[in-house]
Every structure is written in C-alpha cells, then in structure tokens.
Amino acid sequence: MSPKYRIVLEDIKQQLTNGKLAAGHKLPSIRQLSVTYNCSKNTIIKAYNELEKEHLIYTVPQKGYYVVNEFRRPEDHPEVIDFLSAGPDKTLLPYTEFQHCLNQAIEHYKEEIFTYTDQQGLPSLRTQISKNLQLSQVFTDPKQLVIVSGSQQAIHLLTSLSFPNNKKNILIEQPTYFGMIETLKLNDVNTFGIELSMDGIDLERLEFIFKNNEIKFFYVIPRFQNPLGHSYTNSEKKRIVELAAKYDVYIVEDDFLGELEQDKKADPFFAFDTSGRVIYIQSFSKVFLPGLRIASVVLPNNMIESFLRYKFSADFNSPVLSQGALDIYLKSGMYYSHLKKIKNTYFHKMNELKRVCEQLLPEGTHYTKPDSGFYLSIYLPPHVSAKKLTSLLRTQHLLLDDGERMFLPECNQDNLIRLCISQVEKHQIQPGIEKIAQAIRVLKDSRHFHQISLI
C-alpha cells in the first residue's frame, strides 16, 4: 500500500489532470487536508513539498499554496522512431543541475535580470565562454565576443549586415542548414551554392566563385555538417582561409557541433585565420539546452559596433537570466562533465547507425559516414522520391527529413533523406533502418511494376 502522502499527492494530480484545479487556484490548507485524509499535518506538508519540487504548485507565505499550471499525464501513443528532431537527447538534459544554477543566478544577478544590461552580454559570461572556446582552439579576447539569442539570430544579423568588403552576394554549401537558406530567402539575398559531398568541395570551383562573384561571405559548417555529417580536414580549412584572404571574402563558421569532436588535432577555420576574416559562431542549443537561446559570436574588431547596432534593433540584449545561469554552470565545471557524457552517447549512436546502414540498406542506396555528430544522410536509388519515402514512413510512425529545404531551388534533386540520431533511442536504430530499407524497396518495386505495365 502506498504511503499516505502519495495518496494525497496522486489525488491532487488527478484534480489537476481533470481540470478541477486550474492555474492560480488556491489549494486547501494543510489543516483542512489533514482532516479530510485523517492524517497528520506532516503528511500533507510532505505531499505539498513533492508537488512544489515538480513545479506544479507554489507557496505564498502567510497565504497558502497555489497551482502553477495544469498537470498532464503522458498519453498513450504508438512508439515513434524520431530521426527528424534535432534537439539534444532529452534523457541527457541536466534539468536538476541547471535548476540550481537558475536559482543562484536569480540571487546573484537580481539587479541585472530586471534591468537593461550590457548589450554585448554579461562580461563574466563572455569571459567564461572565451575560456571554454580555447578547448575548441578558438583563442579570443572577451571584448570580441557578443552573446546572441541563439545561432539563428547571429546568422540573420550577419546576413543583413554590411561587411567591410562592401560585397553583397553570399555563398553556401549545398546542401546546408535550412535555417540559413530561409534567412537568405527572407532577406532576398543573391545566393550562390557550391556542391558538398563527404569528399569535400571543389577548391578550384571555390576559387572561381570567390574571384568572379563579389562574395560577401562563405557560410560553412566545419564539423558534422547539417545534413551530411561532413567535416573538413585541417588542410582544406587552411586553403579555404587562404583563398578568402586572397579575394577579400569573409567566412562565417557555424561550429554548432564542434564540441562533439573526437579528434583533438582537428581545428576550426578560425585557428587558421590571420587576416580577421573568420567570424566564429558557437551555440549551446544542440549540446546543452535549446530553450536557453544562448550562443556566442566572435567578430573582427571593425565589425563589433555595427553588429551591436543591428542586434539592438532586434532585441537589445539576450535573456539575462539564461546568461547568468549559464555563467554559473560553466564556472562550476558541470558543463564539462555533461559534455563528456553526450560526446560518448552520440559517438556510439552514430557508430550503431552506420553499422546498421551498412548491413540493411538495399542496393543502389548510398549513405554518408560521419565520425560523430547528429546527422547522417542517405542518397536514394534512381527514381525513388525522398518526398514519397518520407510520407510513406510517416504512416508507419517513423519521422525523418526529405532534405528539400536544405537545397537552393536550382540544386534540389529529391534524392536525399537526413537522419538525426539525437532524439532516437539506440535500440530504435535497427528497426528504424529496417523500415527505411523496406520502404525503399516498396517504392523501387512500384516504379518497376509501373514501367512494366506501360510496355
């Protein structure tokens, strides 16, 4: 039989679930409930304390207990194999640890939280991030670092911003991160694409584009690229930086998964830059807490003032509570133990995905082979549509991305699907690939049958 406090707790949760207790509703007093349940006041206090820990109720001193929000029990759904979602593995999110940091941040930064603060970001956080970046071979002064509300904001601002080279066109890898493509569309920017495969890009083609097309900046994802999982070699990075300097092109380096790097000798583009043309973006969304909305941008000195002016027009400063809590989390050392755990998890998930792809994917199908990271892409056999495959698998409760939004319109061939391993559980990987392989065969066979019927 459950302890008495559990009975009280479950009864209150049931009232929250069925709507009898709504947000802001005052709960019965401890004395009233102790009479109702024929138990001690301590039993009721323990039940209320547990509900407070779950953030379902809160206390107003001298007034009583109130409902924070309605409670919802998990609903029964068929198991979904999610190769689509790209946030961090939910089982690895450090909720409890970060909650302590939030509480300390409220106390430590109470004056800054409720007023306007340094537009460039909390100085103490910028110092901590600059120390953290050294682990990724990015050595910079905190004065060159700006805190932004996620890497997407940095991309949007840089796309809009006038650069010192006074050029207008932007070059992107093909395929690439869909958020960058959407930003370019919304800003009506003249955009060039350069084909990327797991073998890299054609450096002669890159030089031709740099030389002849007035490129403002080249947007690159240096490691574990979205969607292919490609990583540039150090020699490729060095050569690309040299070409950028030669033709007065900036590089916007979106190193959002750089902290998952297993090779300690692998450096970012930034490490090879001697002319101040590499702008480095680091985000905490994929390896930590996406809702934190904190990223950092390392800028050349001659661009900081202009960048801050554009940022001011967007949101003045990024959330101060998030900045303060992250500052405390980094100082405590908890972030590094968290990072070690997720690096190991994603590395083993990716190895399992590659193993199963090698074993199960049908003839005519090819897949990328990233060392780690979130993403692996599958190139489908001729005449098998990524859109049709994605739609068919959705009816079987398997989610993935058909890749269309990751291409410029003139580059899309409807033959690429992207798999993300961050949300899928390791035991789901093999059955997931089995479903994908079977769906590819079904679409190939239906195409073949259709061709025969026309003869």
From TrEMBL:
Its cofactor is pyridoxal 5'-phosphate. GO terms for molecular function: DNA binding; DNA-binding transcription factor activity; pyridoxal phosphate binding; transaminase activity. Keywords: Aminotransferase, DNA-binding, Pyridoxal phosphate, Transcription, Transcription regulation, Transferase. Residues 2-70 form the HTH gntR-type domain. The keyword Phosphoprotein does not apply. The keyword Transcription applies. Transmembrane segments: none annotated. In the C-terminal section; belongs to the class-I pyridoxal-phosphate-dependent aminotransferase family. It comes from Fictibacillus phosphorivorans. It holds the Pfam family Aminotran_1_2. This is GntR family transcriptional regulator.
